[in-house]
Amino acid sequence: MQATEWLRADHLPHIWCTGCGHGTVLGAVVRAMEKAGIDRDRTVVVSGIGCSSRAVGYLDMDTLHTTHGRALAFATGIKLARPDLKVIVLAGDGDLAAIGGNHLIHAARRNLGITTICFNNGIYGMTSGQLSPLTPGGYRTTTSPHGHLERDFDLCKLVQAAGATYVARSTAYHVQQTILLIARALAHDGFSFIEVFSQCPTYFGRRNQMADPVAMLEWLRDSTVPSGQAARMTPEELRGRWIIGELYHAKDVPEYTRAYRGLVERLTRAEDDQLAAAEAARAD
Amino acid sequence: MPQPRLMQGNEACVEAALDAGLRFYAGYPITPSTEIAEMLAERLPRAGGVFIQMEDEIASMAAVIGASLAGMRAMTATSGPGFSLKQENIGYAAITEVPCVVVNVQRVGPSTGLPTSPAQGDVMQARWGTHGDHPIVALSPSSVLETYVLTMKAFSISDALRIPVILLTDEVTGHMRERVVLPDPAILPRAERPVEGSAPGDVPPMHHFGEGRRMFVTGLYHDETGFWTESSAAADRMIRRLVAKVERRRNELTMVDRWYLDDARVAVVAYGCVARSALRAVRLARARGHRVGMLRLSCLWPFPDHEIDAIAGTVDALVVPEMNLGQIAGEVERAAAGRCRVVRYNRVDSELIRPEELLPVLEDA
């Protein structure tokens, strides 16, 4: 397939820097949509603010570019109002893990039927290179010029603990795997989450001796381990490396809008029964 | 025949919202607005609508906008601290032209303030709480019945103009119980969202997600296609059109009541719960032979300059009692433009302004 079939060609070229991984990830997103058989006229893609959030401008379907961090909260309203629509959130690491962290854990807790794809480049690119909650420890950014002292989140563990029912991780280096995992997430009935490591050579790489996009892609390759292989490795061998692949999949948790629909049906049935009983009493 | 009912303002707000076709409510608990959420949690699912208690105030506002874009009439309710938190997304609704109603049952601020006591301190926040120039309409009821009527109007204006509308009530009006006979909702004017063909020139037709239009909605400055633009001409065109949607309808949006203005030398300008005691004070003053009148405002934004303009030349003084330090008085001074004195009377100690304390102010004005 041609990825451009899913894009608003008249709004290309995109705004992303040379060597940025976001175009690769967006390409994987549309290929996964095709693979999962998504009806694009019954799909809404929602984003927040940041480099990756601009992706919704290029997708040729219903798209909503919201406020910083709030994509999942807007998406919650859409999904509740139209449970029949596929709702997808694209968001950066700053958007999801910092300013929007509260919405992330609560959307996961509700098991709302939204697929969230995190474009994680470990940096605030739109504001030219500040620290994010997902910047790995020790790395330099414009707001951690002496090296980063904070610890970073393991976002996949966080959303799993919060209640997400499908969790996976991949990278912009592992394109085929990314397509496959996003397609599976799109087919999942419940809150599905995929973290995709993406490279930002411009603002992350240049400060950390990886100005060359290829160097960054090699770093993504070398700092990750497929989940199958990781199962055979010791904790010492896994230290400092990220496990990629499908990390969690629960099939027996009710999706929220389905549960809500059940409530509405139960209440309206009870009222119908009451009305019928009142009618019968009058007839007697 | 509709039966009289004893109900509080928050309850009247709920009845009106349901009669106006509310289908979606997202909120977060906060005194003194919580009854609105509680009643809708009970009733919306029974009516096939959606109620959700979100994780915070910001998320509630976002979910309301999302649901509205997906085709549902949507509302949230809050009070001061929550109203502050919602402001960024209220601006988002303004620039993306998404209809929604935000109820603010005012309490004493700033900050946590006096959470269970009434105030009118959010008048300016209702107008300018979000950053940047933007259109807004704010309505302020004085009674339980008027809470019903203005809630209905709020939905109507919001849908017709595709703007967020603020219902600026207060702890007294929200919690006070009164005997009311609710009007038949069918007789109240109700506007729909503009559609292709019938939309006025300055309000674009409203489309919703899932119609196959592949639309793009953004809080960035955008051109007529909805796509972001850095063209200064398109930016200027967009923001001026948005603001003019409300400004050019100032007269039709104005809602006032007038008492004894024909012979008045002194006129009170009041709104919300304060208008109740102000009217009592006006009647006490007239019983003592003072030529005092009153103008009550139900729509605060856009401010009815022309109504002030009409009386500023005929009275010696305008008295503006408020449960804040003069947020509407400044507007009255601006519109009166020096043609009469403007006397402020303010309380911010959580106590209602009583008729007896206002009476000497009217007599001395």
Topology:
The complex is a heterodimer of chains A (284) and B (365).
Chain A: H1 22-35, E1 43-47, H2 55-58, E2 62-65, H3 71-81, E3 86-92, H4 93-99, H5 101-110, E4 114-120, H6 155-162, E5 166-171, H7 175-187, E6 192-197, H8 201-205, H9 213-222, E7 224-226, H10 227-230, H11 235-238, E8 242-249, H12 256-283
Helix pairs in contact in A: 1-7, 4-5, 5-6
Chain B: E1 5-8, H1 9-19, E2 24-27, H2 34-43, E3 50-53, H3 57-69, E4 74-78, H4 80-96, E5 100-108, E6 114-118, H5 123-128, E7 137-139, H6 144-161, E8 164-170, H7 171-175, E9 177-180, E10 216-218, H8 232-247, H9 250-253, E11 256-259, E12 266-270, H10 274-287, E13 292-297, E14 299-301, H11 305-312, E15 317-322, H12 329-336, E16 341-346, H13 355-364
Parallel strand pairs in B: 2-3, 2-4, 4-5, 5-8, 7-8, 12-13, 12-15, 15-16
Antiparallel strand pairs in B: 1-9, 5-6, 7-14, 11-13
Helix pairs in contact in B: 1-2, 1-6, 3-4, 10-13, 11-12
Count of DSSP-assigned helices of chain B? 13
Terminal CA distance of chain A: 68 Å
Overall geometry of chain A: elongated
Determine the number of helices of chain A (DSSP H or I, runs of at least 4 residues).
Answer: 12
Order of SSEs of chain A:
HEHEHEHHEHEHEHHEHHEH
Average pLDDT over all residues of chain A: 96
Structure characterization notes:
Chain A has 284 residues and is an alpha/beta fold. Chain A has 12 helices and 8 strands. Chain A has an 8-stranded mixed beta sheet, with helices on both faces. In chain A, helix 7 links the parallel strand 5 and strand 6. In chain A, helix 4 crosses helix 5. Chain A is elongated. The relative contact order of chain A is 0.13. The model of chain A has no long low-confidence stretch (mean pLDDT 96). Chain B is α/β, with parallel strands linked by helices and 365 residues long. Chain B is built from 13 helices and 16 strands. In chain B, the strands form 3 sheets. In chain B, strands 2, 3, 4, 5, 6, 7, 8 and 14 form an 8-stranded mixed beta sheet that branches. Chain B has a 5-stranded mixed beta sheet with strand order 11-13-12-15-16, with helices on both faces. In chain B, helix 3 packs parallel to helix 4 and helix 11 packs across helix 12. The radius of gyration of chain B is 21 Å and the shape is globular. The model of chain B has no long low-confidence stretch (mean pLDDT 97). At the A-B interface, strand 2, helix 3, helix 5 and helix 12 of A face helix 3, helix 4 and strand 10 of B.
